[in-house]
Amino acid sequence: MEPFYVTTPIYYVNDVPHIGHTYTTMAADTIARWKRLCGAEVFFLTGTDEHGVNIERRAREAGMSAQAWCDLIAPKWQALWKRLGISNDDFIRTTEPRHVRVAQHLFQRAYERGAIYKGTYEGWYCPSCEAYYAEGELLEGKTCPIHKRGVEWAAEENYVFRLSQYQDWILRKIEGDPQFIQPETQRNEMLSFVRGGLRDLAVSRLSVKWGIPVPFDPAQTIYVWVEALINYVTAIGYLDHPERYQRFWPQAHHLIGRDINRFHSVIWPCFLEAVGLPSPKQVWVHGFWTVGGEKMSKTRGNFIDPIAEITSLAATSGAEWEVAADAFRYTLLREVPFGQDGDYSHAALVHRFNADLANDFGNLLNRTLPLVDRHFGGRIPAPGAPQGPDGALHAAAAAVPDAADARIGTFDFTRGLAEIWRFLGVANKYIDEAAPWTALKEGNSARAGAIVYNTLEALRIATILLTPVFPTAAQRVWGQLGIAAPLSAQRFADARVWGGLPAGAGIRLGAPLFPRIETRPAPPPRRAGAGRTPSARAADGAGPSSSDKGGGAMSEITIDDFNKVDLRVAEVLEAKRVAGADKLLELRIKIGESTRTLVAGIAQQYAPESLIGRKIVVVANLQPRRLRGVESQGMLLAANDGTRAVLLAPDSDVPSGVRVS
To answer: Of 482, 502, 559, 626, which residue is least crowded by CB atoms under 10 Å?
Structure first.
C-alpha cells in the first residue's frame, strides 16, 4: 500500500482555537488513523504559523518580543491536540531553524531560476489575511471578502513572484487532474480564479520585520503566505531526510478550509513548479461551520469553543470526557459531508449522542453482555452452526469493511460512517428477530449462545472499523469484549474475517459508554377535553378513527390556526426500523440546511431502503415527543384509509426546506 502524507494548515498562533480548527484536525486524524488501520505507512503533520505583521502587533501589545509571544502560545495548541487524542507524527513551528533553513533555500532557488524579481507592488491589502486583493474581489465598501473588514491601499518595493507566467501550467494541471482539488465546487472556483487571470505576487515585505529574512536581501522578510506553505516540505524532510521526503511527498494530501484555497491550490503548486519540485497529490477543501446560519464570531457571541462543547456533553451525559470528545468528532464528521458548509448546533450533538451512540452502538453492547454474564458464566459462548437470520448478518459483515473504506478512505466520512451504521442496524435487527432470550426460555442454550456470539462478533467488526473515529470509546468496547489481542494491533484485514471473536474469552461488564441524555420537553398545557389529533395517531402507527376515514363531523379551524402549522418539504437521508416496533420507522431527514429525526408508523407499507432520497412533506414545528425510546422531531404527512398509509409528496422535484402552503 502506498505511503500516505496528510497535513492540516499550520494554525496562526494569534488565533483562539475554534470548531473550524478542530474539524480540520479531527478529520485529518481520522483519515490518518484509517490509513494506518488499512496498513499504510502514514505521516500526519500539524503545527503553528508564527510570522507576520499580526503577530508582531499582538506581541507588542502584550509587551513581549514576537518570539516570546509565539513560545507562549504554540504549546497551547500542542496541548489541545494532545487532549483531543490527535495522533500527529510531527508538530512544526515556523520559527524552528529547520524551517528557516528550507524556506530560505527555496526562496534563493526561485530567485536564481528567474522566477522572482524585484519591483514595486501595490494594491488593496488586508492585514488580517496578510494578502492583497484585486478590487473586483472586495465586498461593498472595499472590505475583505474573508474578514469583512476594511482593506488598506499599500505600495512597497518588494520581491515579486512571476505567478502570471504559470497561469497556463496551473490551468492545465487543474483541468487534467480532476482529483487534485476536491470537492468539485472548490475545483470549479479555482478554475474560475485562474481563468480570470493571475497577477504576479509580492513575496517579500520591507515593512514587516517579524519574518524569515530574504537570504540575499536581509532588509526584506519572506511573505508569510509563501514561507508558511513551505512547512509541508520542511517537516517531511526535504533537506534533512531526503529518503523520507521522496517516499511521502508524492502522496501529500492537504486538508484546508476554503478561505485559504487559492494559496494552496494555485500559488503553492506554481511556486513548487518554479523551484522544480512536484505538487502535492491532493488539496481537500472543507466548508465553513456556521451557527444559526451566521458565520461564527466572538463579537456576535456565537463562537463555538470545542472544549466547552465536549465538557458540556460529558457533564450532561455522565460520559468520560475523552468519550464525549469521540462523540463530538463523530458528530462533526457524520452531520455534514466533508467539503460542504454546515450549521452547528448543540442539539445535533445531543441527538447524535442519543440516537446513534446510545441507541444503536452502545445499546447493542449493553443488551448483549448481560446475557453472557447471566447465562454463560461471563464467557463468550461458542458460535454454533449458522441458522435462519444468521446469513443476513454474515453477508452484512462481509460487505461493510470495503463499503466503509470506499467512502472514508476517500474523505467521504459521512457516507462511510452511514455504511457502518447500516451494519449496526442489521445487527440490532438480528438480535431482535433471532431473540436469544426466547431460545433460553425454550431451553436451547446452544442456539441462544450462537445468537449472542454472532451479535458480539458484529460488534467486534464494527469496533475495529470505528477505531479511527472513536479512539477512546472503541478501546473501552474492546476491553468489555474481553479480547486479549490489543486493539492497536488490529488491522483492516481483521475486520474482513468472520469469527475473530475468541469463544471462551471473559467479558467485562461496565457502565454504559454513552449514557442517554434525557431531553424530554415539559408537556404543553392541555385544554379540557383535548385529545390526540388524527395526525398524531398516524405518527406512532395507531389506526385511524372514523373521522380519519371520512366519516363523522370534522371540527373547523380558523386560518390563524392553520398558519401555526409549519409544513415543509423534507428529504429522507436515512431510514431504519425502530427496535421492538412492527409499525415504526426512524427517519433521518433534511429540511433545508438542518437535519432531524422523526418516527413514522409506515413500516408495514414502506421498506426503509425505499425511502432514502425521497421527498416528503412534514410538520416541522410539532413539539418533539419520544416514541419507543426515540425522539421524534416532527411528523410526516400520509393519507390513511384504514388499511394502508400513503405518503404525501410534491408532484415535482423541489428543494428540501421549501414551505408548503
So the answer is: 559
